[in-house]
Design a protein that fits this description.
2 domains, five-stranded antiparallel beta sheet, globular, mainly beta, 33% strand, Beta-galactosidase, Chain A, domain 5, 19 strands, eight-stranded antiparallel beta sheet, 7 helices
Length: 355
């Protein structure tokens, strides 16, 4: 399962789904050769062969030596026959007799304290559409307030971003009580760790409940998953569900349903991005690296769209996030009433393919 997880949370860009304190860059992982040998699945080690051949993004900065010192283990675990192997990001064929096994699935669900669901339109295509979404709880070790958050890539661009963790030393040296994870603790005031910096739902702008946890209630190999988020928002809603997935026609679909508690609620749908944003009557148009993504709000009719510049740190102890912006789509729901927001994202390649 560990090897499957590492394969699945690596997006077409070669970057990780970097939820919680995970980093975005993919370090050397020579242990994949051990998994490939033990499971007789050579394609597990394909990303490592590409890296050793200089066909993957290099590690830069102070972490380079720390991670690359383990490269020699690849020869210990797999042997010198690696020179006879040909690799793509998900396939490996070796002259030494390894038989390529079945390709990894396009839809995958990982269980555990921080369950994740991953969907992609294809392997071995850097322009493939990739959607990864997580459950879990802010109460787990090194967690952020990111239950229900997701990242999205398509046409070679990461459209929905997570700014990632902030170096702990910079926070602790500024006197921030990083480990105060109570509901009102200082940990959740840190921009990158709290609710402001993730692609989540917000109810009345309040933080998620630390004691709550999101669980997957449905998963389909046809590329959709559903989360029960209710325990994270019990102060404001009696039921909260999030569904996300890839549609057969190439669009990306999001649907959130809730029932307001005894008081009215303002629900915010958050989407963080480094793209340029143009607000449209029923959504937004994103532009980045010569590509486009259109986010359309199908329901409800009454919405408010706001764009926030998050590039500057909100507090002196916070790290800057150059170029980061946040889309907020706001919906009001009366007390005790159901609410819903349905959103489709259309890639530039989808738009071009339409008649």
């Amino acid at each position: 399962a560990s090897a499957d997880y590492l394969t699945q949370v690596t997006a077409p860009s070669g970057r990780y789904f970097n939820y919680a304190d995970a980093r975005e860059f993919v370090p050397p992982r020579p242990v994949l050769h051990w998994f490939a040998q033990k499971r007789s699945q050579p394609q597990i080690a394909a990303p490592e062969l590409l890296r050793l051949a200089g066909k993957a993004a290099p590690i830069e900065g102070e972490l380079q030596g720390i991670y690359e010192r383990h490269d020699a283990l690849a020869f210990w675990w797999r042997g010198t026959d690696m020179a006879d192997c040909r690799a793509t990001p998900s396939k490996l064929v070796c002259a030494s007799g390894d038989r390529p096994s079945a390709p990894a699935p396009l839809a995958w669900l990982g269980h555990g304290e921080n369950p994740v669901a991953v969907f992609r339109s294809a392997w071995d295509d850097p322009r493939a559409t990739y959607l990864a979404i997580k459950g879990g709880s802010p109460a787990t070790s090194h967690a952020h307030m990111d239950a229900g958050s997701f990242i999205l890539e398509a046409d070679g661009v990461r459209w929905a971003d997570d700014p990632g963790m902030q170096d702990y030393h910079t926070l602790e040296s500024a006197g921030v009580n990083l480990w105060d994870g109570k509901q009102t603790g200082a940990r959740w005031d840190i921009f990158r760790l709290g609710p402001e910096a993730h692609n989540i739902l917000r109810f009345n702008s309040a933080p998620q409940l630390v004691a709550g946890a999101a669980t997957f209630t449905d998963f389909s190999p046809d590329a959709s998953a559903a989360l029960d988020l209710t325990p994270l928002y019990r102060d404001h809603a009696t039921s909260v569900r999030r569904k996300a997935g890839l549609l057969a026609d190439g669009r990306i679909a999001f649907e959130d349903n809730w029932t307001a508690g005894p008081a009215p609620v303002e629900v915010t749908w958050q989407f963080l991005t480094h793209a340029d944003i143009t607000v449209e009557p029923r959504g937004v148009l994103l532009r980045q690296a010569g590509e486009t993504l259109r986010i359309r709000v199908l329901s409800p009719e009454a919405i408010t769209i706001q764009i926030d510049d998050l590039s500057q740190p909100p507090r002196p102890s916070d790290a800057p996030s150059p170029g980061l912006r946040r889309i907020r789509i706001l919906v009001r729901t009366p007390a005790g009433q159901p609410g819903r927001i349905v959103i489709h994202a259309e890639t530039g390649s989808f738009t071009t393919a339409q008649p």
